[in-house]
Design a protein that fits this description.
two-stranded antiparallel ribbon; D-Maltodextrin-Binding Protein, domain 2; alpha/beta; 2 domains; about 15% strand; single chain; globular; about 400 residues
């Protein structure tokens, strides 16, 4: 069987999808970006995707809000799976999926990281997903605008926890009722979506440039004399470390924490994308970064690059990245099959690629003895405007162009 063919083309995949929307309803087209955008998963230089099938221009694209609700179709899939377990359930779900018309996925997961998952899914079920990748914020914007335009563009959404929560709050996701969630970390299971993996934020430094790395967050932010990089969109990391560490554990006020970060930002450089920030630290452009993704740093270390995160600055912050089925799903059985695959078989693949698996039965990610703190998705979603605004104030103190 021919392997999945990935085509990386700056902006072309997005334009193809947006042209369908424009032709279907004449609405304002959504925008998307190929960079991490600060709120996405891993950064890529350009947007990468397989082109969505023309079949995504469905009756739902023209039929109004009622046509965008395909919950009954998913409920019928659940009904046909009732009482089935294990391989018998998977076989029945695969049988139902074979009767559908493929799978359209919108995701913030870097194409390089998604490719092994897509290929494994295709090898097992002979289904090739159409995969659109952009930053989490751009993916969210796209699904919101497609929903407003009554256009069913995707079956499945994969994004950072805060964006999954917002999509859920807007009523875009259907119930995810599956035994596959039983082994997922408790904080990563919600009514309508579940965590596939966790991103762990770590401070890291170039070992050629930094011989005596800081031991605490306070040292990094107030005493570090090297050139520091900060990520443009890490408001959720900032909100969590502010509330759970600086305020709860260190007794600081919110105003004191904000001012401390502003002082650090005045001598720092702001980077749009976690992968890019890690690459620049490895290259020696910056001496350290405040909030790199652990899995990307681990990959560089494995390759022998001059970067390190241990001994870690504690606490480290974990954020779940999840999967959910769209309310306008056109291929419900295939969407559920993909979600259950990600929550089961794919967990070991993620661990092999240094990702932090969400399953409690698969080892990987940050060693347990470090006791990282999990982002409270529900809490920060309620105050997103506040924390995004504060982080924007902080990074604007740099006064330097954003590196992207």
């Amino acid at each position: 069987m021919e392997k999945t063919r990935f085509r990386a083309r700056a902006g072309l995949a997005a334009l193809a999808g947006l042209a369908l929307i424009a032709s279907a309803c004449g609405s304002e087209p959504p925008t998307s970006s190929g960079t991490d955008g600060g709120t996405g998963d891993d950064a890529t230089a350009t947007e990468a995707a397989t082109t969505p099938d023309e079949g995504t221009e469905t009756e739902a694209a023209q039929g109004g809000s009622d046509a965008m609700d395909n919950s009954a179709a998913l409920e019928e899939v659940y009904a046909q799976l009732e009482g089935l377990e294990g391989e018998e359930r998977t076989a029945k779900l695969a049988e139902l999926a074979a009767e559908e018309d493929g799978l359209n996925v919108y995701s913030s997961t870097n194409l390089d990281d998604a490719e092994p998952l897509i290929e494994a899914f295709e090898d097992k079920f002979d289904i090739e997903p159409n995969y659109y990748r952009a930053s989490s914020s751009d993916v969210l914007q796209r699904v919101l605008q497609e929903n407003d335009a009554n256009y069913a563009g995707n079956d499945v959404l994969m994004a950072n926890g805060p964006e999954m929560a917002l999509a859920d709050r807007e009523g875009l996701l259907l119930p995810l009722t599956s035994p596959a969630t039983e082994d997922i970390i408790e904080a990563g299971v919600f009514d309508n979506w579940a965590s596939v993996y966790v991103n762990t934020f770590v401070a890291a430094w170039n070992t050629n440039e930094v011989s005596d790395p800081p031991a605490t967050w306070e040292e990094l932010l107030t005493e570090f004399d090297g050139l520091l990089a900060m990520e443009l969109g890490d408001w959720d990391w900032f909100a969590t470390i502010t509330n759970r560490y600086f305020i709860e554990q260190q007794g600081m006020t919110e105003e004191e924490v904000v001012e401390m970060f502003k002082e650090a930002a005045r001598d720092a450089r702001i980077v749009d994308g976690h992968t890019l920030m890690a690459e620049l630290v490895v290259a020696g452009e910056y001496d350290a970064g405040t909030s790199l993704y652990h899995h990307r740093v681990a990959e560089f270390i494995d390759e022998g690059a001059p970067i390190q995160w241990e001994p870690p600055l504690k606490p480290m912050i974990l954020r779940p990245n999840g999967v959910g089925i769209m309310k306008a799903v056109q291929n419900p059985a295939t969407a559920l099959l993909w979600a259950e695959f990600l929550l089961t078989d794919a967990q070991s693949i993620l661990a092999e690629d240094f990702r932090g698996p969400a399953s409690t039965t698969v080892e990987g990610g940050i060693p347990e003895e470090y006791e990282p703190i999990l982002v409270d998705i529900d809490a920060i979603t309620q105050e997103r405007d506040k924390w995004e605004g504060l982080w924007e104030e902080i990074v604007s103190q740099s006064g330097q162009p954003v590196i992207e």
